[in-house]
Amino acid sequence: MKILSLTLALFGIVSAFSADQPNVILMMADDLGYNDLSCYGSEKLRTPSLDRLAGEGVRLTSFYSGNTVCTPSRMALLTGAYPPRVGWEGGVLGYKIKWSHGLAPEARTMAEVFKEAGYATGMSGKWHLGNADEMSPVKQGFDSAFYIKSSNNQTTKLWRDEKLIVDPFDNRRLSEQFTDEAVRFIEANKSKPFFLYVPFTAPHFPAQSHPEWKGRSANEAYGDVVEELDSRVGEILKSLEREKIDRKTIVVFLSDNGPEPGQKKWASAEPFRGLKWSSLEGGTRVPCIVRWPNAVPADSESDALITAIDLLPTLAHACGIELKKSTPKIDGVNVWDTLIGKKDAPHARTNLLYWNGWAKLEAIRDGDWKLFLGEVKDVPGSESGPVLVNLKNDPGENENLAAKHPEKVKLMQALAEKQLADIKAHSIPLGKSKEQ
What we know:
Alkaline Phosphatase, subunit A, 10 helices, 20 strands, alpha/beta, single chain, four-stranded antiparallel beta sheet, Arylsulfatase, C-terminal domain, ten-stranded mixed beta sheet
């Protein structure tokens, strides 16, 4: 009887608290460059929906994805941990990472955090965290999932929960289908708090124009795909307005990494150098916009250092969810005070580690300073020793200031070594399928 009373009491607390909790929609583009949105300076691409989102929220200009390639970037985003903490040793699923491997089932994801707090959880888009049944989205905290298991150049199969529903899918229509499913999820869950994850495949190669968008941009098929993506984001935002829940929904839009080398003719990370796979700024500094009319100042901008691993603790805090100890250990920090423009509040993140796409730790950022720890392709002088640059004055990472600031070099080297030792001491293995 005591157990029943306690259960009912707890249920009452959760229900009462949940009524005021905001919804969360986390949308992510695939391989979208820093300069691929007009609100981030693109002169080739028109992105009015995302421009509007930025005008109603905060535009982050020193935001970093979870990694510089797809699979570890998603690991970082959903766990709040640097990818090596979950056993990542380089590459992406299907390219160095075996198809039978992926995010370990015991890794606690953002979906699980929200689900445990009473949220409905849904996903529509690209998974790329494991092909095995025990690594599927519905085994990692999502009540429902509409998805492809890997990148759109690696598979032809479209899944709902754990059932194959289409083979082959039409790559030209994936953004449309993922959006339609996202809108259906919103409509079905509008009366209760929900967490919706929408990792689009666009504009990942092959960029193929939707029939209704073909030739509409000034940047060939890549531009068509990006501009359609912008319109699909607009459809999701309109559904929130239609259901009158836009003011109680936190919306986040970001990219998983910088431009794909094969798309560099059309994509842009300006004013930064580097592409996907690279630890240069262009490989991992990406657009990120956060909107919540109740708290985030409209038409604001922040150059504070923030990364995708910070989104889990930040969004949990914004929703009144207390984070438990997690597996793996969370490297992200709560940056909510910065997002809402709270005056006199110290910014929580001061430094950041950079791995290239092959899991080599190549650099660390501390404030405006970035130190390349050893030889790095396209970083002149790195073959002779550490290279120190000031990102505020030198966003192109061209001027080596190591000789002028030897103490700064030593301090940053020691900081990187300390954090790397902690990661090695407190990590879990990559998930491996029991079937293979």
